[in-house]
Records
---
Amino acid sequence: MPINIPKELPAREVLENENIFVMDVDRARSQDIRPLNILILNLMPEKEKTEAQLLRLLGNTPLQVNISFLHTATHESRNVSKSHLEQFYTTFEQVRDKRIDGMIITGAPVERMDFEGVNYWDELKEIMDWAKANVTSMLHICWGAQAALYHYFGIGKFELPKKCSGIYRHTVNAPTVKLMRGFDDIFYAPHSRYTDVDINKIEAHNELELLASSEEAGAFMIMSKDERHIMVTGHLEYDAHTLAEEYERDLAKGLDIDMPENYFPDNNPTNKPLNRWRSHAHLLFSNWLNYYVYQETPYEWK
């Protein structure tokens, strides 16, 4: 089944070229199907790239999904046009009276700052508090996962000696949990961050369960025991070339940065990276939509 997005959204052409089934809103309204309403709070700087990455995964399930994009009102994005935000995005004030089936909070390039130092932190806290009563299931990615662990569960972050960037091997810690259905015992996933969370605090927390982890990259997938919150510290949604683009960007800035680990074939940055995580990215999003959104959301919100 398709995802429903505006006709003019730039990601539409990208997805159609990849043979992803998309449907415009007018056609979707003619179908007698209760679609899932998914709200994406996109905090990433290059919003159009993130839109395509997430829509690619949300659009590859048997479920019909309505997508809405949210941006913060208290922060002005510098890497996207104002017209793009005005046409395709909404603010919290425009959705606070709605019920949402599923919500995604992305990463953000602010992880080295204290949470309270982020200029939209108060707004994000208000959104996360609202979500407790108005959203069936939350998927938090990278810094969004760290923000959720801090705000909901009191687990802070710490800065790493160097950036965690590359493709890392992960182990499934909770194979019987529905979110992990279909996952290989060992799988690979990208990480790109300067900070981490204490895996021991996660394992000791009586409201959290560690679902997958890496010896090199630490805690990867965490779920609240009420199954309302899923925190993913890496970037399964990334394209094959995303880490290469970030590496080139950091070099151009003159940063003292290491090459992404386990990424370029033969550790040669002129070689084209291979996507070794695509199937598990699709599994994560399809399992989330099916087991934690579709099967838990009432047909009509009261």
---
Amino acid sequence: MSAPPAEDLVRQWEREQARLRQQVVEEDTEDWQRSPDFSGLERVGGVDLSFIKGDDVNACAQLVILSYPDLEVLYEDSQMVTLTAPYIAGFLAFRETPFLLEALERLQENQPTLLPQVVFVDGNGLFHYREFGLACHLGVLSGLPCVGVAKNLLQVQGVYKSEEHQSQIAALQRGGDSFPLTAASGKVLGKALRSSDRSSKPVYVSVGHKISLDTAVRLTHSCCRYRVPEPIRQADCLSREYLRIHFPAADTGIKE
């Protein structure tokens, strides 16, 4: 059977996003989330996909579990996968989520005691064209609390790299400072967070599932040794190391 035309696929995916969007929980659901020091949180997950440069089909899907608050690696799963869904802007989750879910399912089957209590996703959650980015998609389908952390600003719903945005970034004085990303509708879809005293360039945090925005921002800051929260940074490093070892002749590209 041939693939549906792009416009038909987009409409199908829009309907699926709208259906799943209704299931997103935008508030704290776990006891540890309400604790000032996240007492009771012991395991944080990070996921990422890394590609060989010039190949947008074959990727290393990575899951890493870290201890909290020490942020030491407890578990890692690197798996080469072949993406079958096309890349269409705003629908990244349909390409990536199945493989990230499979990694979580392998963990559940092999070492269920290490299942993460929250997952950091290299991408957006509610800060998205239709308020349903990769972190929301993975959260709803896995049932786990998820936080979206993007390294670059998605210019969406009236949020732009304007002079005002740049001045707000400049006003972030220290690690932990943030400002809201407010859509044209007036809804706050995420926050720009200065995650480290050493990095003046913010990350963009948004709710994925089963966590409030303020808690997501506070947790993200607590997981940052550098600019990018450690679960995502480790997932990125480990997946790129896997590609370097198994595909030594290939250029795996450089991520900031």
---
Amino acid sequence: MTSSDYWDAEMARRYDEGSAAMFAPEVLEPVVDTLAELAGDGAALEFAIGTGRVGIPLLERGVRVHGIELSQPMVDQLREKVDATHLPVTTGDMATTVVDGEFSLVYLVFNSIGNLRTQEEQVTCFRNAARHLAPGGRFVIELWVPGIRRMPPGQNAVPFNVDDRHLGFDTYDVVTQQGTSHHYFRNDDGSVGYGASNFRYIWPAECDLMAQLAGLEFESRAADWHGTPFMADSESHVSVWRKPVDAALPQTERPQRP
């Protein structure tokens, strides 16, 4: 059982078109470059692989990729691009689903950890990532910094996109850390469509604590996939945690730290 929203067939069919900006080479190539470097000669596991926006080009770079995805309709869209022999996907939630093998890289992009709407599930997701990592492997998350810093007292909504085709804003409950993204789209016939998705927001420091609970060590944090330094006013982060090399050794065989 998961608290995540479920992407049905209609949402899955429209996903690539609605996220077209995220497929642009200038957006996608730095993501794939970074992940390919971190994966090295090992295999990569993508949580919430969706329609394969990142997994497929990473596979094309020569990295062995396995995916986990909750929505079967999203997997069906991915299957129109690549078959299961080349890119296997296990259907299930990213907090508890286990696949065979060890990975040098587990990654979760495009704010997707927020789809898990309880802190318990998010902690379990970090632990699931650690479970799949080989010693020395890395867990990478791409996540926005909550926009509540821009809300004046009494306001509960922050716009994140305003243009001729799309109006998007987030509403926040700062007590529960629950939020909803609202999307209004102008269709070609002039009509307006609406969609919404729910999330739980997490601060970077909370992510670090979840990683620590999972036995992972903080390695780096940048503001984006280009490696821009993370600052107090950064609106997103790409964070990397590492599974200790000695994690698989019995306690008596682990190097003693001073």
